[in-house]
Amino acid sequence: MLRKSFNNLPRLSQLCGLQGRLQSTQVAPVEPAPAEPEDIAAIEQRILKHPDYFQVHNLFTVRDLFNARVHYGHKEGSLDDRMRSYLYGSRLGHLIFDLDKTAAHLRDALNFAAHIAFRDGIILFFNRNALNAHLVEQKAMEAGEFSHTRFWRGGIFTNANVQFDAVTRLPDLCIFLNTQNNVLAQHTAVRDAAKMAIPTIGIVDTNCNPNLITYPVPGNDDTPAAIELYCNLFKEAIWRGKRKRRELLGLPPLEEAKPSKSAGRRFEKN
Amino acid sequence: MAQSRLEKIGTIFTRVQGLLRGSAMKAEDKPIWYDVYAAFPPKLDPRFDRPAPNVPVRNIFYAEDVVRAKLHKHNKPTETISLFDHKRSTQSQQFVQIYENLRAQGALDEQRIYETALDLLAEQRQQAKGTEAVEESLEETEAKSTLLSDFQDAGEQQQITTTSTPASKKTKKDYAGINIDSLFKD
């Protein structure tokens, strides 16, 4: 496929509004550093045997999810039947998620994201909620990854080589912080990612369809406090993967962007 | 370049697996997520046609909902609640707590407990209001001076200052502070 071993992806990065990281993501043909006797491919295989190599289970607790209001779903009328198994119940018409299930799914998703980051994959954050768009872009930048929070022109994935006039490397993982365009329609990139065989992680609310999402995380996808929690968790998981890779390769650690004061302090007081 | 864009058939893993097995995709072109997916498969296959589970959504109710419903049916809620405030308990919560306490003592029947709890809640609110009112009145007495009284005070103090100069600085300070406060109070 076209995913590996191509260097020219300038148009995708422009599109995603982030240019900083290109050097580090261009598929560095995996060469072991001189100090490191073990081949990186061998390391990649070895760490897969560990059930939780990046220790993502200690990133959050169920109490953190509760405090970030992850358990609130929509009202009963908008329930998608495929979400039934993730629910705890209905409180006077409002659906409530089972946070134990959410935590288990979220840990799987974080582990997957950390492994992809370790393997130097490109990660793309999606969000179509205008309220959280800036936050998501900010956090993606802090994670050194890409984001797409605007209108999705059809064919960005499926017709990339024509649209960008060049052979394009597509992302290796898509993280959807909300999988709906609006209350009626699913984000086209969910389908397109499945077409192009790109794994997806998605926060699915009670009105979403989790079927095409590879690692669905049932939870509230509207509240800024919840979105901020997800963003911080994915950011940290991605950084753990990247740090570990550079450590094992014997490279100097990457410079990490400081979390900005403006986005993110607002919801900390409660 | 081998590829399968039929997202409605199988999963991304089975499609890539098929390509690899039939050597339509070379092993070195294998996507980087493939091994990770194989090691940590998702809990459910991400198939397009995965049927919805037939699980009923249960209703969440608590034992104290009965009395809470009764309270809200017969009393109009008058308070303003801040959802960010986790320290303060709402009137409804206070009522339920009083009610449970009374019921634990076990001397009265349901209706009597309800009425007594309502009385106790009203009393509690009255007390809380009382303490607030006392605090407010204390503040009032401190800064009760009006414009007229300020002028009179100033007049008196001017007379004093003509006789004794060292006190003048202190009185001026007081005078200025009181004046502004009382002006805005009215």
From TrEMBL, chain A:
Say yes or no: keyword Ribosomal protein present. yes
Q: Which InterPro entries match?
A: Ribosomal_uS2, Ribosomal_uS2_bac/mit/plastid, Ribosomal_uS2_flav_dom_sf
What family does the database annotate? Answer: Belongs to the universal ribosomal protein uS2 family.
The protein's name is Small ribosomal subunit protein uS2m
A GO molecular function held by the record: structural constituent of ribosome
Q: Where in the cell is it found?
A: Mitochondrion
Question: What keywords were assigned to this record?
Answer: Mitochondrion, Ribonucleoprotein, Ribosomal protein
Q: Where are the transmembrane segments?
A: none
> What exactly does this protein do?
Required for mitoribosome formation and stability, and mitochondrial translation.
* Domain of life per record: Eukaryota
One term under GO cellular component: mitochondrial inner membrane
Does the UniProt entry include the keyword Ribonucleoprotein?
A: yes
Q: Which biological processes are named by the entry's GO terms?
A: translation
TrEMBL record, chain B:
Which residue ranges does the record annotate as region Disordered?
150-172
Q: Where in or outside the cell is it found? A: Mitochondrion
Task: Share an example GO biological-process annotation for this protein.
Answer: translation
Q: Which UniProt keywords apply?
A: Mitochondrion, Ribonucleoprotein, Ribosomal protein
Domain annotation Small ribosomal subunit protein mS23 conserved: ranges: 2-125
Q: Which Pfam families match?
A: MRP-S23
GO cellular component terms, alphabetically, are: mitochondrion; ribosome
**GO MF annotation, one:** structural constituent of ribosome
The yes or no answer to whether the keyword Cytoplasm is present is no
**Which protein family is named in the record?**
Belongs to the mitochondrion-specific ribosomal protein mS23 family.
UniProt cross-references to PANTHER family, sorted A to Z: MITOCHONDRIAL RIBOSOMAL PROTEIN S23, SMALL RIBOSOMAL SUBUNIT PROTEIN MS23
Question: Could you tell me what this protein is called?
Answer: Small ribosomal subunit protein mS23
